[in-house]
Structures are given as C-alpha cells and as structure tokens.
Design a protein that fits this description.
The protein is built from 19 helices and 28 strands. The longest helix has 19 residues, at 117-135. The model has no long low-confidence stretch (mean pLDDT 88).
Length: 622
C-alpha cells in the first residue's frame, strides 16, 4: 500500500475501513473475488485512449457534444483524465439485473439461476461509480434510475461511495398505469414504480434549481381604514394599538390588488408557529376579550414580512369564540413580481413522486428510433437535468443506450436557451437474441465466439457494425434529433464520434510513453474542447476552438528536430494557449518558454499514465 500516491478521499476511505474492521461494519458486503470482472482485471495490460471517427461527425451548429463507443469502464478511464472534476450532472440508467438477459458480465448474460448475480452487478457498478465520483464538480449531482431488483443494494453502495449525507432524494417514478391490462404472466403483483436515486458530490455546495409556482393574488381584496386613534399598550414585549368597534372599518374591495390585505383564520397550524400574529393573539390577547370587547381590532407592531411593519388581528364577534382573523399583505419578496398583474411566482420544494406513465406509454418511437429495452422519456430526463442551475452544464451518461439523455439535453437547451453539452458512452453490444442468430448462421459455439471477439474477427466486427447498439440505435437517434426527423424540428448541436483505442502497457516504460504520446492527441482535444486543426506535421500539432480564442499546442516528437519551429509558432499566437510537450519525466525545463505569453503547460504523457495506474490500483482494491 503506497500512501503517498493516495488521494485525500482514498486515505479517508482506508482509515474508515480499518475502523469498520475493528468495530464492526454496517452496510454492504458482497463476494468481490468469486468472479472478478475481466475488463477490469485486464486493464493493466492496455491503456485506453480515444480515436475520432471523423466521418460520423454530426454538425448543425451549437455546442460540441461527445459520443464514445466502447466499454464504459474504458471510457470512464479516459474521462478521468479529460474531465476530472468537470462534470455538472451525471444521469445513468444501468442494467436492472432482472435476470431477463439485459445485464452482461464477462461476455455472459446473467439470469436468475446465477447464485452470484447480485455480487456481479455490485462489482460491475462499484468500479464505475467510484470513477464517476472523480468526474463530478464539487457542486455536481448524480442520478441513477433503478427498479426494485437492485434498489436496496444500490442505496447502500451509493452511501459507501458518496456518503449518506449527500443523498438528496429518492424519486418515485410511475412508469405505467395501475389499471392498464398488461400481460403479467399470471403474477399477483403489478409493479408500476421505478426509482431515481439522487446524490450530490457535496450537498453543502449544491443548490437545486427549485420549481416555480404562481403566487395567487386572489385572496388580497381587503382594505382597513383606521377612523380614530386607538389605545396604545405593551403586551408580551410588543406595542399594541387597540381599535374598538367604530374606530376602524374593514372594506371588501371585491377585486384583488397587491396593495390590499388577505384575511386568514388564526387557527390550526398557525397557532403553533411561534411569533406569528395568530400565535401572539392566542398567547397574549385572547384573554383580553372580555375587557376589550368583541369585534376589537388589534394592531400588532413590528411583525410581518409584507413591509407594513404591523399585523392586524380582529377579535371574534362573540365572547364564547376563540378564533381571531389575521389581515396581512403580500410578502415583500413576492411584490416585485407582480408589475400590475394578479399573479407572481414563488419557489416551491421538489417533490419525490412523478407520474410519467403517459410518457412511458408513448415512448417507443421517441427520437425516431424504436428501442424496447429500458428507454426513458425525455420529459423525465429534462426534469432531472434541470435540477442543476447551470445552463452551460456538462451532462454525462455512461449507460447511454438509446441516447435519450443526449436528446433531452438538446431539447432542454432549445426550451430555455441553454448551452449544455452532453457526453454519451455506450458499447456496441449485440443482444443475446442476435448473438444466437450469429452462432447459428456461422455454425459456431459460444466459446468460439469469445475467441472471435478477442481476435477482432472481421466477420464479427461487420456483424456488430450492422447490429450493435451504438452504431444502430444511439448514433442514429442523436443524428435524427439534430438534423430533424419526421415532423420534428431540428435541434442545434454538434456531435463528435469517438471509439476507444488502446496502447499496450507491456513494453518498456520509454516505449509505452512514446506510444501513448502518439495516440493521446484526440484526448487532449477533448480535454480542451479544441478540435479545429490549425497545423499538424510529424512532430507537432496546433488546434483551436471555433472562436479561435483558445489553442492547444502539442509537441509530440521524441527527437526534437522541429522544436525551435514549434516555439516560434506558439509565440505568434496571442490568445490563451495550453502547451503539451513530450518528456520522459514530469518536468519541462526550457528557457525558451519564458518568451511565450498567456499559456499553461503540461508534460505528456506522465500525468495520463499516472492517473491510469492510479485507477488500475483503485479498481483492484475495490
């Protein structure tokens, strides 16, 4: 155990685990070693990078969005470098592990007969969620859809990774009508609810975008005129003016206005709210009813949030009654919203129940692509994404499936003029049904298919390209919504398509660094959001963003024949620059850099390699 390489969070977790071992553990324990995930076990052999598929770029103006085809563990490893602590919102819809051939582990679909189905699912999720936490900003949130099969396990897993204090809500989502006649295989119970677990990275930093509701002026139609001065007394630490019958008049104006008062019975819960007018009347003035008389109006000074500086409370009309009437104005924080209208807006809390059953019922062709395996309606996703106040948020979905999250981001941008960006990660997985068809057509066994996958057999590659989910569901769906489909209007946006690629981690350190430097340029462009090539040769490359106010300058040659030329090119760029320069170490000592202005610098590929090794270690320990 190398403590010097551990982050603060990892050290805290390590100490916590020691305490739990000594004092007993409450939480989630599962068999992590029965069948480790092969992708994770073999990750020390290959360093994941990105390769852009340029002919799949979709361009209709708007922000640069990213679609990554590959195993999401590899994609998350890459994002751990390019987007560490940069993601605002994560939404995922992982496999529910129902046993209905929708969760694949080590190239095998898990069914109900697998005695370790829950352990495999937890192994699978734990590795990915721990990396995902690294990606979130301090005020970021993560939201996960799940059903009853794994929701209890997910809660404990999320508590162990994010902390129970950061649980913001468990949303209950109605996904079908309770009275709908569905084929339920004779079951006696009909589940209609799914769940969305919502966690903050740090609940002290996250401020939700609370929904607004209209503040109704209708009750505000009373006016009180003081006809004479009343008697002044002090009761309960407050100045009170007693207006007897005939000293005031209450007029019902019959129309509402922000300058009028509303009438509220001083009873029920109001009596329990200390320092309110109803509580004060009940506590100090009710006992004066026989002395002051019925129909007395009390003017209680230094009370209320309506800017008047007082509250009126009218005594009952009979001595045997106890309830008074409170007259109060529109709260100050609501008055500015009226501008002469009869309604304004006020915030309200986020509820944890939503009925999206109509939207789930009409979802099959949403996005112009039929997909019958867990598709979520964009209405629900827009609701969730909009909990974050940042309209320029980066939204990540690493179980992208049908691409609904990307669709929701683009649609929400159109609705509120936002500039959010999405990152979608999905493999190009083939369904079990299609795998069986491939086996039958080619007269091979499942074990032989495994070999074909490892060897990247061309026949299998062609089959996945024709039938895999990323190329045939996710990508076409995003293309549809950006370019427009059927009668749907096009949504602005640009999508860049990447595939995960790999650098062998088996040679000498120097050779690994050479190979990694050669292949890491697309990752650097993703990291800096600079895709426009200004110049590229066999030793250096310069990219910019579309506005040409930010540049990424990469010197990747191992010999340095054109280094002077590179420095001169960089010096000529006045705008903000990020320099990535190859070195076998972690330091760049170069006097010539002093001549360059307005830049930051990073040695490559040392930091990429260090973060990769750290993830490998963390994944094996967890």
């Amino acid at each position: 155990m190398n403590f010097e390489e551990m982050s603060k969070e990892e050290l805290i977790d390590y100490i916590k685990n020691i305490n739990e071992s000594n004092n007993g553990k409450y939480g989630l324990i599962w068999d992590k070693e029965k069948e480790p995930e092969k992708i994770v076990e073999e990750c020390n052999k290959h360093i994941p990078v990105l390769r852009e598929v340029e002919d799949k770029k979709i361009d209709n103006n708007g922000e640069n969005n990213i679609l990554i085809e590959g195993d999401n563990f590899h994609a998350l490893e890459v994002l751990n470098y390019t987007h560490r602590e940069s993601i605002d919102v994560i939404y995922i819809d992982p496999p529910y592990n129902t046993g209905n051939e929708e969760f694949m582990y080590n190239d095998k679909y898990i069914d109900d007969d697998d005695g370790y189905k829950h352990s495999k699912w937890l192994n699978f999720m734990s590795k990915r969620l721990r990396i995902a936490r690294n990606l979130l900003k301090d005020d970021g949130i993560i939201m996960i859809s799940i059903n009853e099969t794994e929701q209890a396990q997910l809660k404990l897993l999320m508590d162990s990774i994010f902390g129970n204090a950061n649980l913001l809500s468990v949303h209950h989502i109605q996904t079908r009508y309770a009275n709908k006649d569905v084929a339920n295989n004779g079951a006696q119970w009909l589940p209609i609810i799914e769940y969305v677990y919502i966690y903050a990275k740090n609940y002290l930093k996250f401020v939700p975008n609370l929904p607004l509701e209209e503040y109704d002026l209708t009750p505000y139609h009373f006016e009180i005129n003081e006809l004479e001065k009343g008697e002044i007394i002090n009761v309960g630490g407050k100045k009170i003016e007693i207006l007897k019958k005939g000293q005031y008049e209450i007029i019902n104006k019959k129309e509402s206005n922000v300058k009028y008062l509303k009438e509220v019975w001083g009873s029920g819960s109001l009596l329990k709210q200390k320092n309110t007018a109803a509580w004060y009347y009940n506590e100090y003035l009710l006992s004066r009813l026989s002395e002051d008389g019925t129909d007395t109006l009390y003017k209680i000074y230094n009370m209320g949030e309506d800017g008047l500086g007082y509250r009126y409370v009218k005594a009952p009309q009979k001595l045997d009654k106890t309830r008074g009437k409170v007259y109060q104005g529109v709260p100050l924080d609501k008055q500015d919203g009226f501008n002469g209208n009869v309604s304004a807006r006020k915030v309200k809390p986020i509820v944890n129940y939503y009925d999206f059953s109509p939207d789930f019922g009409n979802i099959i062709n949403e996005g112009g692509i039929a997909f019958n395996s867990g598709k979520k309606p964009i209405k629900m996703l827009k609701e969730l994404i909009n909990y974050h106040t940042n309209k320029s948020a980066i939204v990540l979905d690493f179980f992208a499936g049908s691409g609904s999250t990307g669709h929701a981001v683009l649609d929400l941008n159109k609705k509120d003029n936002g500039s959010r960006k999405f990152i979608l990660c999905t493999n190009n997985e083939i369904s079990k049904k299609l795998q069986r068809e491939f086996l039958k057509e080619n007269n091979i066994t499942f074990e032989e298919l495994k070999v074909m996958k490892i060897e990247r057999n061309q026949k299998w590659i062609d089959f996945t390209n024709e039938n895999g989910i990323c190329k045939n569901i996710t990508y076409p769906r995003i293309k549809n919504v950006i370019e427009g489909y059927a009668s749907k209007e096009a949504l602005n946006g640009t999508v860049r398509y990447f595939e995960t690629d790999f650098v062998d981690n088996n040679g000498t350190r120097d050779q690994i660094f050479y190979d990694l430097t050669e292949k890491c340029i697309p990752m650097l462009c993703v990291k800096e959001n600079t895709y426009k090539m200004i110049e590229k040769n066999d030793q250096y490359a310069i990219y910019s963003n579309e506005e040409k106010n930010k540049f990424t300058c990469v010197y990747f040659d191992t010999i340095g024949n054109k280094y002077e030329e590179f420095i001169e090119k960089v010096k000529s760029i006045e705008k903000k620059k990020v320099l990535y320069i190859f070195t076998l170490g972690n330091k760049i000592e170069e006097p010539r850099l002093a001549e360059i202005k307005n830049y930051t610098i990073e040695a490559i590929p040392q930091r990429i390699y260090d973060l990769y090794r750290k993830l490998v270690r963390m994944s094996k320990e967890n």
